[in-house]
């Protein structure tokens, strides 16, 4: 099971928990009151799932940014640190990634 499937399962689990709570609430409470309890529960669940999604995407962001312009090369010829295709000091195109 990969991370995405695990994440989806977690969301389904929360939806299941919410349904179980709302069903049991509607069994013990008469209709208008049960609705007054179920709505806040579903709002809280939506908030919780959204926060988990945000946490998931937030965790992915640094690696996405890391693959951008912040890559540092070292010149294989003179050792100068740069992020261009060729070395600004000696013009050599042979680089190694730090
Ligand atoms: Zn160089």
**Number of H/I helices:** 2
Morphology call: rod-shaped
Catalogue the ligands: zinc ion
What do the pLDDT scores average to? 78
| Number of DSSP strand runs | 3
- In this structure, how is the largest beta sheet organized? 3 strands, antiparallel
Strand order of the largest sheet: 2-1-3
Radius of gyration: 26 Å
Roughly what percent helix? 55-70%
What are the low-pLDDT stretches, counting only 5+ consecutive residues below 50?
A: 62-68
Helix-strand sequence: HHEEE
Q: How much strand?
A: 5-15%
SSE-based structural type? mainly alpha
* N- to C-terminal distance: 33 Å
The oligomerization state is: single chain
Number of structurally distinct domains: 2
